[in-house]
Specification:
The complex is a heterodimer.
Chain A lengths: L3 E4 L2 E5 L4 E7 L6 E7 L6 E7 L4 E4 L2 E6 L4 E6 L8 E8 L5 E3 L3 E6 L1
Parallel strand pairs in A: 2-11
Antiparallel strand pairs in A: 1-3, 3-8, 4-5, 4-9, 6-7, 7-8, 9-10, 9-11
Chain B lengths: L3 E4 L2 E4 L5 E7 L5 E7 L5 E7 L6 E2 L6 E5 L5 E5 L8 E8 L10 E2 L3 E5 L1
Parallel strand pairs in B: 2-11
Antiparallel strand pairs in B: 1-3, 3-8, 4-5, 4-9, 5-6, 7-8, 9-10, 9-11
The chains are: A mainly beta, B mainly beta.
């Protein structure tokens, strides 16, 4: 099955700085890569996703890049704000429609 | 439009007791999933149902059973609870195929403690 590794496990940034989270996947057949944000005590919520036919996607302050050759993808958050503090999960989906998740990155934005 | 509804939100069980976690979605999604979330381990798939009438094991199915009652409902049963099953459980659903969005919609979770 698919194996997704996520780094770093924790990330502390100064408000206004950028945050980058990186993930690698094992199954070259994977074709869909979503990112979820989970605030304390809440459910994971989809914040951005990318499909395998696209190399980069942006939505305001967040962007995701995908390198299919190297089998890695990254989440970039620019101009971080206190409300960006949360746990972020990457995931990858291969042909069986199941998502495999990374272990998560706890992001803390310092005021 | 409620999305994915899970019940109960909290539960405390004694070792050996049984219980069923309920999940229902109103988005006409084909696929439904049960995950457990433990600190530092992300979300691990317990069971899933790709479509009504089918269920399959995920990566951590031992100690659990599921029922896809109809297209809307997917329940998770613990027959004899163990302390190792203390976790937060999330149900999710997704559309699949064609140009449909493949993202999951999660329920609000069930925090289960087995003592």
């Amino acid at each position: 099955g698919e194996n997704v590794e996520q780094h770093p496990s924790t990330l502390s940034v100064q408000e206004g700085d950028s945050a980058v989270i990186k993930c690698t996947y094992s199954d070259s057949a994977s074709n869909y890569f979503p990112w979820y944000k989970q605030e304390l005590g809440k459910r994971p919520q989809l914040i951005i996703d990318i499909r395998s036919n696209v190399g980069e996607k942006k939505d305001q302050r967040i962007a995701v890049t995908l390198n299919k050759t190297a089998k890695h993808f990254s989440l970039h958050i620019t101009e971080t704000q206190p409300e960006d503090s949360a746990v972020y999960f990457c995931a990858a989906r291969s042909n069986d429609y199941k998502l495999s998740f990374g272990a998560g990155t706890t992001v803390t934005v310092r005021a | 439009n409620a999305g994915v509804t899970q019940t109960p939100k909290f539960q405390v069980l004694k070792t050996g007791q049984s219980m069923t976690l309920q999940c229902a979605q109103d988005m006409n999604h084909n696929s439904m999933y049960w995950y457990r979330q433990d600190p530092g381990m992300g979300l691990r798939l317990i069971y899933y149902s790709a479509s009504e009438g089918t269920t399959d094991k995920g990566e951590v199915p031992n100690g659990y059973n599921v029922s896809r009652l109809n297209k809307r409902e997917f329940s998770l049963r613990l027959e004899s609870a163990a302390p190792s099953q203390t976790s937060v459980y999330f149900c999710a659903s997704s559309a699949q195929g064609g140009k449909l969005d493949y993202g999951y919609t999660f329920g609000s979770g069930t925090r289960l403690t087995v003592v």
